[in-house]
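Section 5.1 Outputs to date
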Amino acid sequence: MSEQYLWYIPNTVEPGHRGDDTTAGWGSIEFSTELARTAEDHGWGGALLGTGWGRPDTFTVATALAARTTTFQPLIAARPGYWQPAHFASAAATLDQLSRGRVLVNIVSGLDNPAAYGDTTTDPARRYARTQEFLHLVRRLWTEENVTFHGEHFQVTGATVAPGPYATAERPHPTLYFGGASDAAERVSAAEADVQLFWGEPLEGLAERIDRLKKLSAKVERRHKPLEFGLRITTLVRDTTEEAWHDAEEKVARMSAKPTELTWTGNRRTAVGQRRLFELAERGEVLDTCLYTTPGKVGGGGAATTWLVGSADDVATALRNYRKLGITHFVLSDTPYKQEIARIGDQLLPRLREFEPREPAV
């Protein structure tokens, strides 16, 4: 299977995201386009666009960036409580046709501020059941005509999406990414996702989760091609190992000094995956070869809870070790975003592509 290397664009109107010192331009088409084109120029396949109430609408931004780039693939984060599946399937298929197959989709079940947009489904079990229906129905709408579906959360009768996605022999529709570490989330991935996204855990933990997801795929009688796996993580890369750790420790010191500015505001108290990351710090400051756990203790959250720190060779070796587990999709980032798009793209990606496997992971 081919590998995917994506960057991250936070998609926010507020400066200072994860310590980025850029003070102007956030939320503007000019700045977002500059980030997307820089990603194109430095070897990235595209970028995950952050989502959440109070940010620019992710799909609108993705459409604008697709129109202003040539190869850039927007990984569009979307919430089932914000979209109806038929509406989303139609919008995504249209953009996929207009961009000649460049749309990627990241379905998000975690809470942000659901009351602000009228979402009343907050119970975790119901939320994941709704997500599974959403994925199932979107996939059907992308691949079938005259779809009729009457589920617990969504219903359509005689629905046909026109135009459909930009289909090829290798890619019948946009890739569906999904993340989550709870039992309910893993059942959703095993049944309906194309790619399970992990945050930056040690190799042993992800090996166990991959094995469990493969077994679960058989148990739920998965009807699609085998589930693939991805890693979303912060990568702090410098010319030397010593310089990288010096800068990582300085950045953590700044985070510790200004926790209110940098603290992640997601559902950190209840999200299973987030709790797993926070607990890693109890096992040590550095796990595996260069997985830094301290950021989670001083305000880092989500993909910024743990960092891979080192020279380009150090971080490339760490990512190759994840790849040996069967992980083939990588969503990387560090701040300042524009500067690090170029640095990590130029220094790290060539090292990873030199060693891309020629055979599919087993």
